[in-house]
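Entry for the shared binder. Reason: the reviewer on the internal report wants the predicted structure included alongside the sequence.
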Amino acid sequence: MAPRLLGLAAVQINFWINTILASGLGAGSVSALNYAWMIVLLPEGIVAQAVATAAFPTFAALGAQRRFGELRRVLCNTLRAVLFITIPATVGLFVWRTPLVRMLLERGQFTAHSTELTAYALAFYSLGLIGLSVTEIVARGFYALHDTRTPVIIALVSLVLNTAISLWARGPLGFGGLALGDTTANTFEMVALLVLLTWRIGGMDLKPLVNTALRSGVATIAMAVPLLWAASHLGTGHALLVGAGGLVVGALIYLAGAALLGMPELPAVWSMVLHRQPGKRAQQGGQLVRH
């Protein structure tokens, strides 16, 4: 528990430092960062944390039995499922950030200027979604091996990196530089933990991961092009219709592209979506990480 408590403290210290740095950058900076961060945490919580929760019992059982070959396979499959969702989510948040912020927040005292500020922060925060999501999975791989110290050590190094980049980037980029520092630190944390865990469990087959990332990237490009056009031509329409319509159309284009590319992650993820009841969802999550 001690390393976990220290890790949670590091997260709060990081938030505290960003708040202090943002408070001197003009009115609305702190609020824009907070709102943008909350939006990024929506897909991270729904996807990465849910999959990580479903995967952890399997990780723990395989780690306890020292079945590292099977652990490598399950870890790879879990990461593929997360990448399948977070790659388009990352690009979607970046491309569709302004209509999304308008739909979720622009009302009352949250004006068009507030939307502009929040969307600016979201442009930088969104790029860290993959790092946040993969870290959720990989950290639980360490926990399954009874190692809670390594994730905390890497988190503390990421904290120092985040602070250094934020101090450097807030000059040219304003509060966007603080979001960039956080994104860079999250990406570093993902890479460091993934490399160390791969070494601990005796390697990992990277070919399926690369294959998923490449095919997901192609389908994401097919999704991003029309969303870019729509964001520039339709972004001033009705906030709810434009925001929700873009999300639905973008998701349909991505899923169609994934189906055309024959991505094996699509049936497993789709099965989890269809079985929304808690018991069935947990069962489907277990099947997803095993197969």
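Summary line for the report: Residues 104 and 240 are 8 Å apart (CA to CA).
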